[in-house]
Write a structure and sequence with these properties.
It is a single chain. This protein is α/β, with parallel strands linked by helices. α13 runs parallel beside α15 (about 430-470). It has 16 helices and 15 strands. The protein has helices at about 10-35, 35-50, 70-80, 160-180, 220-235, 235-240, 260-270, 285-295, 310-315, 325-345, 360-365, 380-390, 400-410, 415-420, 430-470, 475-490, and strands spanning about 55-65, 65, 70, 90-95, 105, 110-115, 120-135, 140-155, 185-190, 200-205, 245-250, 275, 300-305, 350-355, 370-375. The chain is elongated and about 135 Å long. The strands form four sheets. The protein has a seven-stranded mixed β-sheet with strand order 10-9-12-13-14-11-15, covered by helices on one side. Strands 1-8-7-6 form a four-stranded antiparallel β-sheet, with helices on one face. A two-stranded antiparallel ribbon has the order 2-3. The model is unreliable at about 1-5, about 310-330 and about 470-490 (pLDDT under 50). The structure holds adenosine-5'-triphosphate (ATP) and magnesium ion.
């Protein structure tokens, strides 16, 4: 092959290198004689820099720490790269801490691997340098410290793309992997610290409820999922419009319709920890403030049965001063939460639950307070079929569904009651017969209750008529109005 303009021949390369080396030696010997030592060193390093052969490759060094804090790119790379391990990898580190669900696999020192991003080849190497650790006096006390880092090498022409898009991709992937592996926590109040006040205490949240297992209206379910997903993506939006990055949900409905299960499903979906704030256990405002400040970002604060929560002013003052403060109490708590979260919280969700939406303080229902009101209601046929799939694995039709559908139209039953029946047997026929019995029983009870109500009403009206009959008759209009008023009072 003939040498081309772009590719110098080995002999021309050799002669160029030899002449360069000779001139360097000449410069060096002249320099040794003429130039003082410190300036000579500076000149030589500058010459070396300019004559060094240039590589088309660029290497990014990603150290474990940046100053006192951790380098997030290093942590992300460590997590991301364990999904890229190839058959060529020879040494790996493996570990598992008590808090982790899965084994952790990491690259061992000097191990390399190759990744591709949009067709670009990326070479990763894990490095670890050991150095002697000097104490502040500059003396070595025999301790060694490790400097861990990744090297990421690729062609220089891709620098912008790698820095702007690949590194972000690694950060995002690592976050998703970490979320999947994360063990969620449920924080509840521990009131046994008599001196230092109430404290959060955490256990692993292993509630299995997910949006898939939850019996609820499919449109409502999708609306909730979309709302949550939109919320976590809108960090910049909240910042731009100057609002605290938080979202409030009010879950209401009869007992056993899945409000608590929905909270667990939300936590599992978002991988957020849950803080269960039982207001009844909080005696002082200072405790409330301390507890709220101790909650982490990316979490769900839950206040269950808000209509039954004890009112704060009463407890705070230890006297009977509740009547005129009662309304202020909840709005006070809400403003308190708003204020704290606006100043120091990110990605916070607050959920209130109640069995009686009509009894709630208007402060809670005011527009803009709770962003979404979610009605968890009695079980309908769709919800029942979903539970049958979850509990018994029935997909499609079953010969007892027709009868169940008829009965469900005539009575009200909660998903919790249906679930209880479905758990009684693994045999679908037996379990569904149990559901039929339950529905029939409830229907009869319902009929009886209606009968009693009708009888009571009739008795009251009869009593009214008798009372009115003993009095002198007045003008027709007056009598009707008055008897209506009385009947209303009796009822
Ligand atoms: N919609 C539902 N989908 C699936 N399972 C449900 C549903 N509702 C209730 N269940 C079942 O019933 C149990 C009790 O439900 P959950 O505690 O979520 O009800 P709740 O609405 O929070 O009741 P309460 O008002 O008494 O707090 C759950 O553990 C679950 O097994
Ligand atoms: Mg509940």
């Amino acid at each position: 092959m003939f040498p081309t303009r772009d590719m110098p021949s080995p002999s021309s390369l050799f002669s160029a290198y030899a002449s360069m080396a000779a001139s360097m030696m000449l410069v060096r010997s002249m320099a040794n004689e003429l130039i003082p030592h410190p300036i000579r060193g500076y000149l030589l390093s500058t010459l070396r820099y300019y004559f060094k052969p240039r590589s088309p490759q660029l290497t990014l060094v990603i150290e474990e720490n940046c100053g006192m804090s951790r380098n997030q790119v290093f942590d992300a790379a460590e997590i991301y790269l364990c999904t890229k391990i190839s058959p060529n990898t020879e040494r790996l580190k493996i570990s598992k801490s008590p808090k982790e669900k899965n084994l952790t696999i990491r690259l061992e020192k000097n191990e390399k691997l190759v990744d591709f991003h949009e067709g670009i080849e990326l070479k990763w190497r894990f490095g670890c340098d050991e150095t002697e650790k000097n104490n502040p006096n500059g003396h070595n006390n025999g301790q060694r410290s490790e400097k861990r880092y990744f090297e990421l090498t690729f062609h220089k022409k891709h620098k912008d793309k790698i820095v702007s898009s690949y590194i972000q991709f690694v950060l995002d992937r690592a976050k998703a992997i970490k979320d999947e592996e994360r063990v969620l926590k449920m924080h509840t109040l521990n009131t046994s610290y008599s001196y230092s006040g109430v404290k959060w205490e955490s256990i692993n949240l292993e509630h299995p409820a997910t949006f898939e297992t939850l019996a609820m209206d499919p449109e409502l379910r999708n609306a909730v999922i979309e709302d949550l997903d939109r919320f976590v993506k809108r960090k910049d939006f909240y910042k731009r419009v100057g609002r605290a990055w938080k979202r409030g949900y009010l879950l209401y409905g009869p007992p056993g319709t899945g409000k608590s299960s929905l909270i667990a499903a939300m936590a599992n979906h978002l991988k957020f920890d849950v803080y269960d704030l039982q207001l009844a256990n909080i005696l002082r405002d200072s405790d409330l403030r301390r507890l709220l400040l101790a909650t982490a970002n990316r979490s769900i604060l839950v206040i269950e049965d808000i209509d039954c929560s004890v009112d704060l002013p009463d407890r705070r003052h230890g006297d009977g001063r509740k009547q005129h403060d009662a309304q202020l109490t909840l709005s006070g708590l809400l403003n308190f939460i708003d204020g704290l979260w606006s100043s120091c919280g990110d990605e916070r969700i607050i959920v209130f639950t109640t069995n009686h939406k009509d009894r709630l303080d208007p402060a809670l229902l005011r527009p803009g307070r709770m962003d979404m009101h979610i009605n968890m209601s009695y079980c309908n046929l769709h919800g029942f079929k979903q539970l049958a799939t979850t509990y018994l694995g029935i997909r499609g039709h079953h010969h007892l569904f027709g009868e169940i559908e008829g009965l469900m139209g005539e009575t009200q039953v909660t998903p919790a009651q249906i679930a209880e029946e479905l758990m009684r047997s693994e045999d679908a026929d037996v379990a569904l017969q149990g559901v039929i019995k339950l529905l029939k029983r409830k229907k009869m009870e319902g009929d009886e209750v209606e009968d009693v109500a009708d009888q009571n009403k009739a008795a009251i009206q009869k009593a009214k008529r008798q009372k009115l009959g003993n009095k002198p008759r007045r003008s027709g209009r007056n009598i009707v109005a008055k008897s209506n008023r009385r009947i209303r009072k009796f009822l």
